[in-house]
Amino acid sequence: MQPSELSLVAAADAIRQRRLSPVELVDSVLDRVERVEPRLGAYVSVAAGQARRSARQAEREAAAGRFRGPLHGIPMALKDLIDVAGAPTTASSRVRAGDRAADHDSTVAARLAAAGAVLVGKTHTHEFAYGLTTPQTRNAWNRERVAGGSSGGSAVAVAAGTATFALGTDTGGSIRVPAALNGVVGLKPTYGLVPRHGVTSLSWSLDHVGPITRTVADAAAVLAVLAGHDPRDPASLPHTPGDPRPAAYPDATGDTDLTGLRVGVPRNHYFDHVDPQVEAAVRHAVGRLETLGARLVEVEIPMTRYLRATQWGLMVPEATAYHERTLRTVPELYGADVRVLLEAGELMTAGDYLRAQRARTLMRREWARMLERVDVIAAPTVPTTAVPADRQTVTWSDGTVESVSDAYVRLSAPANITGVPALSVPVGHDGAGMPIGMQLLGHPLGEAVLLRVGHAYERTAPARELAPVA
């Protein structure tokens, strides 16, 4: 096994025990980048020289017994919405071509650097995170299929071994969707748990930052570094004395006993208009949870008829407000799909936006009531696997036609509207070999439970390998 194939937890353990050098690990990842990146297009930019300098410094510190933190010497990638001092933040858009480099690190970049992580590069997003396919990037399992979005570059980098972990952002599923489509783990934390200062916004009331990793234990390790209050983010959750959240996440030695845990299985919405192979794989995974001791509880998802209107009613006007100046001065620099959405936001009224806000308030209340009956909900992450890159719609067995973007956002948007945490875990492949993801949703600040359940499932499944990039 090459070092680039190691999970974060395994690599970090090897570095701490001096069985692996940060230089060896970073060199292995950069060698992998050189071999497969031209075929995948995951990165906007690769900082190979800086990464090697950081790795040598990490090696000197390790040799002296000084470790900066739990991610010491671990290669990472950051979605190119996340500011890194000295590097431009392009948002994969011509609108920002020629923009000067960021003056300061974002909060998350600073926390990861302080914990010892080594930046390999910045990854592609669907332009300004406003889409679910990331057209610049190809799926790690099949280059003819979409990568998913908007954090497609980050998910592909992790799946292909060109980063040991990465960060993405999630406004309507943009961490979980590409994670599911590329066979890796994606975590959208509770709204406000991870600060967004220094991260380009799509929709400030829906935006989240979180990790994309190879294993659930890896996601737990990254979240422990990211979580915590930052007064520069108005939505950041306050820190209270003795707050256990950053230390509450399980490690790779956790057991698989889920006795007494209540797993909600939706009777509506999450299994409606879902590919039969996706449904079968997810229901099989839910059955695995039951064999580990969990009790399955059927639940009714509330207010489903309002989900799409609420998601778009919040996101579209907020995105348009953010882009107001450049939309008027350089509209021709936006991609056609993004420009149409931004212009649509100018047609929405204040009343439309306020109705969406009211619907969200009611939805959060009803979800809180539903979650009183269960500890987690288990469901598909997306209704179908990665579609061919040139496909615009999905046709279901009853003749219903749905745009690809609407299909991919449909099952992930509820967690953004309500702010509850959601974890996508790989649970198999379809007949064409494309990955399938199961989504676990929990109580606000219930990440520890989600990670415990995801980790327990993961330990019953075969070990996952890197995507076979061809």
Architecture overview:
The strands form 2 sheets. An 11-stranded mixed sheet has the order 1-3-2-4-6-5-12-13-9-7-8, sandwiched between helices. A two-stranded antiparallel ribbon has the order 10-11. Helix 2 packs antiparallel against helix 3 and helix 9 crosses helix 12. The protein is globular and about 60 Å long. The chain contains 15 helices and 13 strands. The protein has 470 residues and is α/β, with parallel strands linked by helices.
Quick take:
The chain has 470 residues and is an alpha/beta fold. Helix content is 37%, strand content 14%. The chain starts with 7 loop residues before the first helix and ends in a 10-residue tail after the last helix.
Structural class: alpha/beta
The share of residues in helices is 25-40%
Number of strands: 13
CATH class category: Alpha Beta
Count of DSSP-assigned helices: 15
| Poorly predicted residue ranges | none
Task: Quote the beta fraction.
Answer: 5-15%
Q: CATH H-level name... which superfamily?
A: Amidase signature (AS) domain
CATH topology: Amidase signature (AS) enzymes
Total tally of structural domains: 1
Largest sheet: 11 strands, mixed
- One letter per element, helices H and strands E, the order comes to HHEHEHEHEHEEHEHEHHHHEEEHHEEH
> What average pLDDT do the residues reach?
95
Overall geometry: globular
Second-tier CATH architecture: Alpha-Beta Complex
- First-last Cα distance: 18 Å
Cα-atom Rg, whole angstroms? 21 Å
- Biggest sheet: strand arrangement: 1-3-2-4-6-5-12-13-9-7-8
